């Protein structure tokens, strides 16, 4: 009796390995797509200044397809309803409000002595509308009122708390955190090469203050929200800046922002030398360190960013890299690490 040959069973890779490989491939594709879109949308200043493809003076909100003109004083008074106060600073009070069943944010001046700061912030918000800046929906100069898009995740001060919410725990990874840092550096790069010229983010004397100036969107991107203190640098004409008229202290601010004449000489704003946009560069490593957090793989990212961050901390501002150079490095590191994590034998490193 002839024996039938046993059919050879083809060994298939373990299910866990296949799933892990699929996750890594998806991760790689997402990162490459992110970098491609960043390059596509961020190649020049004006290329970035088209939020949602609406022309200047118009906006699109939510799922609405058509662009609407910025709301006027009359429209704001008639159509916007305050719900509750959600914040108050030295310059303005902020209200969660409603407009045509959409949650929006209404900001109103609280101290008339600071009206110039408020109006400067409005001027910057109008001129810098882009994918980096919170969306302007309307304003009323005579009532010192600004209407902007609402982002429920709030400012970056709550990032770590947000990432511990069960809904967002999947976002608490080194690559997602690095992408947020890339968003932040992209904003600094945009301000340093804006349509108005080189702008310095002056409201940044400590980490908490920096984080309060930016919003976290629901799709986990970063937007700059507060533009009240954004002076212009013009090196060719010798125009430099000073961030306020009081003495700045601490390691977070750049060396050139600190009183240079020692403790024996009382601070005098008239004697304080001005400086340029490289003060923003000094602060990038500290802000990025916050973004990276202490998740698995974040120390490997820090290691790859060590050289560029050391360059940011050079005492001579002229020797620090530009925001564009830092952004290029961050993107290269993201691509490199995603490639490594997708290759067999390197997964344990991350």
Automatic annotation (TrEMBL):
Annotated transmembrane regions: 20-37
Isomerase is among the record's keywords: no
Catalytic activity: 3-O-[beta-D-GalNAc-(1->3)-beta-D-GlcNAc-(1->4)-alpha-D-Man]-L-Thr-[protein] + ATP = 3-O-[beta-D-GalNAc-(1->3)-beta-D-GlcNAc-(1->4)-(O-6-P-alpha-D-Man)]-Thr-[protein] + ADP + H(+)
Gene Ontology process terms (BP): protein O-linked glycosylation
Domain Protein kinase: 80-350
Superkingdom of origin: Eukaryota
Keyword Nucleotide-binding: yes
Pfam families: PK_Tyr_Ser-Thr
Membrane topology: Single-pass type II membrane protein
Annotated Gene3D superfamilies: Transferase(Phosphotransferase) domain 1
Main localization, broad class: endoplasmic reticulum
Gene Ontology CC terms: endoplasmic reticulum membrane
EC number(s) stated in the UniProt entry for this protein: 2.7.1.183
Compartments it resides in: Endoplasmic reticulum membrane
Gene Ontology molecular function: ATP binding; carbohydrate kinase activity; protein kinase activity
Entry keywords, A to Z: ATP-binding, Endoplasmic reticulum, Kinase, Membrane, Nucleotide-binding, Signal-anchor, Transferase, Transmembrane, Transmembrane helix
Job description of the protein: Protein O-mannose kinase that specifically mediates phosphorylation at the 6-position of an O-mannose of the trisaccharide (N-acetylgalactosamine (GalNAc)-beta-1,3-N-acetylglucosamine (GlcNAc)-beta-1,4-mannose) to generate phosphorylated O-mannosyl trisaccharide (N-acetylgalactosamine-beta-1,3-N-acetylglucosamine-beta-1,4-(phosphate-6-)mannose). Phosphorylated O-mannosyl trisaccharide is a carbohydrate structure present in alpha-dystroglycan (DAG1), which is required for binding laminin G-like domain-containing extracellular proteins with high affinity.
Protein name, per record: Protein O-mannose kinase
Origin species: Aythya fuligula
Gene: POMK
């Amino acid at each position: 009796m002839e024996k039938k040959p046993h059919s050879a069973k083809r060994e298939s890779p373990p299910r866990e390995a296949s799933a892990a490989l699929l996750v890594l491939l998806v991760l790689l594709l997402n990162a490459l797509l992110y970098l491609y879109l960043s390059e596509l949308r961020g190649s020049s200043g004006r290329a970035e200044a088209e939020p949602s493809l609406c022309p200047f003076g118009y906006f699109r909100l939510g799922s609405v397809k058509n662009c609407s003109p910025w709301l006027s004083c009359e429209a704001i008074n008639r159509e916007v309803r305050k719900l509750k106060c959600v914040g108050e600073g030295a310059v303005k009070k902020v209200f969660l409000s409603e407009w045509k069943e959409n949650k929006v944010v209404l900001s109103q001046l609280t101290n008339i002595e600071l009206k110039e700061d408020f109006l400067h912030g409005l001027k910057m918000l109008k001129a810098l509308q882009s994918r980096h800046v919170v969306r302007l929906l309307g304003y009323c100069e005579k009532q010192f009122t600004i209407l902007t898009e609402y982002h429920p995740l709030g400012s970056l001060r709550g990032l770590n708390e947000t990432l511990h919410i069960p809904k967002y725990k999947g976002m608490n990874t080194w690559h997602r955190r690095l992408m947020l840092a890339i968003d932040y550096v992209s904003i600094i790069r945009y301000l340093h090469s804006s349509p108005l010229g080189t702008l310095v983010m002056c409201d940044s004397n400590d980490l908490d203050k920096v984080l309060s100036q930016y919003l976290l969107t629901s799709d986990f991107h970063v937007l700059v929200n507060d533009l009240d203190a954004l002076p212009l640098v013009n090196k060719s004409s010798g125009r430099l800046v000073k961030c306020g008229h009081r003495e700045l202290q601490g390691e977070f601010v750049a060396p050139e922002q600190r009183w240079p004449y020692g403790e024996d000489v009382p601070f005098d704003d008239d004697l304080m030398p001005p400086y340029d946009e490289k003060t923003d560069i000094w602060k990038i490593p500290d802000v990025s360190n916050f973004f990276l957090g202490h998740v698995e793989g974040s120390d490997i990212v820090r290691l790859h960013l060590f050289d560029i961050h050391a360059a940011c901390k050079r005492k001579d501002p002229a020797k620090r890299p530009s925001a564009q150079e830092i952004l290029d490095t961050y993107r290269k590191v993201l691509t490199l690490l995603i490639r490594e994590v997708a290759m067999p034998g390197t997964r344990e490193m991350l």
